[in-house]
Amino acid sequence: MTASTPIHRAPDTPAARQALALAGVFQAAYLVDELARTGQTDQRAWETLIRATLDTNPESFEAIYGGHPNNLRQGLEVLEGVVGRQQVNPVVLRYGFSLLMLMNQLRTNDAMMDDLGTRLTRIQGQAEHFGATHENVISSLGEAYQETLSMLKTRIVVQGDPSLLQSRMMPERVRAILLAGIRFALLWHQQGGRRWKLVFQRGALKKALDQLG
Question: Where is the signal peptide (predicted)?
């Protein structure tokens, strides 16, 4: 993020912060499904997730997702469907909730958390040299996911077009986005997000989403 990026202040409530973090998780789930089925995805949504993964020490909460909720629009729309009990793509939901389960397993694995932190520090150096969305950076993010999180008990099996999933850079792109989903899942937990709150505090989340517009 550059200093000139306008910051759109998020409502400073726990529910709003949890909603935005959870939107990041579901945006990752949405993008993984889109990539696996079509090979394409929204550039702004993609860049927001990659930059958030690389920014491990953001200057503010809003800076994590680039300063404006619209950067998380796809994820917010999925979350609105979840909270409003509307029809949501079941594959996207499965990816999203699997990311939350993976995050919980990662959180209690100190060695893996340290390993990921070391890897991300190294990848930040790559990003400064090549740019955040350069192939080398995406490959390294994908490798970081593959060599850490994919070893945990919960495995995310991505469904889609087999020829697309095996195409050049696609496995790396998918894994990089799954890693971004974990980054937002950890953020959600840090902001007080818990699975049971999705059921019992649905009203507070819905109100926060309405405020975010």
Answer: none
Write the DSSP symbol of residue 64: G
Q: What is the pTM of this model?
A: 0.94
Question: Of the candidates 21, 104, 11, which has an alpha carbon nearest to the alpha carbon of residue 58?
Answer: 21
Q: Selecting from 1.10.3890.10, 3.40.50.460, 1.25.40.10, 3.40.50.720, what CATH number does the domain 14-211 have?
A: 1.10.3890.10
End-to-end CA distance of the chain: 23
Amino acid 98: pLDDT: 97
pLDDT of 4 strictly over 50: no
Domain residue ranges of the chain, discontinuous segments joined by +: 14-211
- Whether the CA torsion 8, 77, 194, 66 is positive or negative: it is negative
pLDDT in tens, 114-133: 999 999 999 999 999 999 99
Sign of the four-CA dihedral 171, 1, 103, 16: negative
H-helix or E-strand spanning residue 174: helix 170-190
Question: pLDDT tens digit string along 30-73?
Answer: 999 999 999 999 999 999 999 999 999 999 999 999 999 999 99
Q: Closest Cα to residue 111, out of 151, 141, 140?
A: 151
